[in-house]
Amino acid sequence: MLRKATRTPRDGVTARAAGVIAVALVLAAAAPGAQAQPGFVAIDFTTATTSGNAQTGRTAGTFTSTGRVHDAGRMTTAYRAVGTRLDATAMLMGTRGILTIGLRGALGPVLDGRQSVAGRWRVCGGTGPYLRLAGNGRWQAVTELGAAPAGMTAPTTRGAFLGRVSRGPRLGRQQADSTEAPRC
């Protein structure tokens, strides 16, 4: 014999508890500190060429970051320029950990002893709090080539990385075959 389904007070409590849990999960996902939520980052840097020339070389200097990644410390880059295209890898060694960034950019002409470059960046890896960080954005820099004869003073570069970072899956995936996509 089949009985007619009836709602008991216990079912109501279970439904309310499920509703409370669902609301809590939605609020946790929307919270500012939620792991997958992307956040703005701005990283200012100043470096000087330590070895190499205009086509390939290394730089060393300092950086300061604000926003989702708040840190400061030393920065090194290894770069290679072919024509007007520049590919580089930057390693930011801060007080909280190490962040590695891949860069791709386009070099501008040399005007009044300065050369500009602008392009895209993406997070390649990290340690400590940067271990599972993903992100990308745009960057630009200006290199002061100086008025002294070549080799007398190291060219100084000042610039910034601007973009968004998050923990977890890659943020804003770029096409692997894109000519703008930085490589890691």
End-to-end separation: 68 Å
Oligomer kind: single chain
Q: For this structure, what is the CATH class of the largest domain? A: Mainly Beta
Low-confidence stretches: 5-36, 171-177
Tell me the overall shape.
globular
Largest sheet, spatial ordering of strands: 1-2-3-4-5-6-7-8
Please, what is the average pLDDT? 79
> What is the structural class?
mainly beta
Strand content: over 45%
Main sheet: strands, sense, barrel: 8 strands, antiparallel, barrel
Order of helices and strands: HEEEEEEEE
CATH structural architecture of the largest domain:
Beta Barrel
Q: CATH fold name of the largest domain, please? A: Lipocalin
Q: State the helical fraction.
A: 10-25%
Number of spatially distinct domains = 2
CA gyration radius, whole angstroms: 24 Å
List how many beta strands DSSP finds. 8
DSSP summary: helix tally = 1
How would you sum up this structure, described in words?
The protein is mainly beta. Helix content is 12%, strand content 54%. It has one helix at 9-30, and strands at residues 39-52, 56-67, 71-82, 85-94, 98-111, 114-126, 133-144, 156-167. It has an eight-stranded antiparallel beta barrel. The radius of gyration is 24 Å and the shape is globular. The N and C termini lie far apart (68 Å). The model is unreliable at 5-36 and 171-177 (pLDDT under 50).
SSE order and pairing:
Elements: H1 9-30, E1 39-52, E2 56-67, E3 71-82, E4 85-94, E5 98-111, E6 114-126, E7 133-144, E8 156-167
Features:
184 residues; mainly beta; Lipocalin; eight-stranded antiparallel beta barrel; 12% helix; globular
